[in-house]
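Hi W.,

Here's what went into the run:
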Amino acid sequence: MTLLDFARGPAMQIAIIIFVVGIVWRLVGVWALRQKKDLSEPRQKGAWIGGIKGLFVHAWPYKPFVPKVGTQYIVGYVIHLGLFIVLIFGTPHMLFFADIVGFTWWTLPGGVITAVAVVTTLALFIALIKRLVNPVQRMISNFDDYATWFVTTAPFVTGLMTTMGMWPHYETGLAIHLLSVWLLLIYFPFGKLMHSFWFVVSRYTTGSRFARRGGMA
Amino acid sequence: MKEHDLTLGEELRRQGISRRSFLKFCAGVASSMAIPAAMVPAMADSLAQARRQSVIMMAYQECTGCLESLTRSFAPTLENLIFNFVSLDFQHTLQAAAGDQAIEAIQTAMEENWGKYLLLVDGSIPLKDDGIYSVSHGQSHLDSLRELSEGAAAIVSIGTCASFGGVGAANPNPTGAVGVDQIITDKPILNVPGCPPMPEVMTGVLTSFLAFGALPEVDRLKRPKAFFADTIHDRCYRRTFYDQGKFAYSFDDEGARKGWCLYPLGCKGPITHNACATLKFNQGVSWPIQSGHGCIGCSEPDFWDKEGFYKPLSAGQWGTAEGIAIAAAAGVALGAASAVMSRRNQDKISGGK
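Here's what came out:
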């Protein structure tokens, strides 16, 4: 069995099983918790509207904070949008998903995907440098933050190296790229990458609770 | 002078082939093997002095496709002259002799050229049950290979079966088939994989052996680097469509008709090392991708067992989805157990209120 066969077969199966177990475990574990009782009278009706509003209001910083944290938000958006574009509109990636869902969709030229991946990788490095340089951010960072950065950046770097033919053999590069993605999947449920699932829930909950108490979302 | 004693240069003059034509041939071979142009005259001189090389070609567990490819390669050309110049002392499909006469031919060739002959092998060799699944003249091919390799100067494995086991070794490999270099480890071995292999690679290898007395430089899979250094994808004329994101998604869609990249149709070009994209088959007429079919990766080990020729390289090898369903169920159970424990903890903290 070659490294690529291992990456495409057993490694992928193991990673996906760990990913599915971990995600379902955490989702069920949190949703099955006893909900906190709020015995107070709601201050206004339609707390759910506040919840929906919360989803959007927190998508951009409160105006007075923009000069201080605006860059952080922009870097964050570049990373997330870049990840989405490369993952969904890169042809080899689309083919991976098409094999599962049974249909294909429009993709972007390889050169565009490479350019987006380069910009995203740069944004990831800027995010890391900011974290290391800023004393407050550095102080509140733990292993999870750096591990999350590493498992997110590694697929971009290995993917770019594979596309640009920087490995001695393409198949080795492809295998390493796949293995880096499986590492991401394995780590995903147990670290801060779970925010992909939690951010909607937590923003809605915060918004709706604030609204119930009569505050702003 | 006996025909056997002629040098290649004398043979060329006898056939009326000019030195200019011979140099052109040498330049062509040198170019295909990435030998510097400055070496061409020296190579030509060395080649012209070469004596007829004894070659024993054994066909083991095979389909004869490799031999078809080599013998039906081109119309009479200088390349063919190289094939004709070697003394093919045994090849059971091509020779007239059969039975005891054929075996005598092998024995004679071995005795007369002990330590000097080139052994060409075509087909895989079964190991299971002492190699009983592939036998000629009462001798297993496993024993035959061991015996013949002892007196060989070098061994060339022709085709994917002889190189890596090929279709014979495909899952579940009922005969325990393997390639030559998994049995013989004390001789210089060169693999020329492909299903079938390219005749020009054999020309290059034979020319190199005749000119320099040694096999050319090889890669990690013992393939001549000159022909197997690049992938099909690197040299494919459809590569530009891959870069532009223009693909064929079925064999009769617009992309297929326009000759776009076949990656979504399972083309294994990016992981396949061979020279088809540049040399092509049938005197440079065409090759599989030019005919509209993706590369199946026939010059790579275990190419039969990559979960289908039509599955894109980036798609996973899922096996069955049972594992994922079990994983989801396990996740629900773990989640529920965690929640129960957390609720107990909540009750403990709140004192049941």
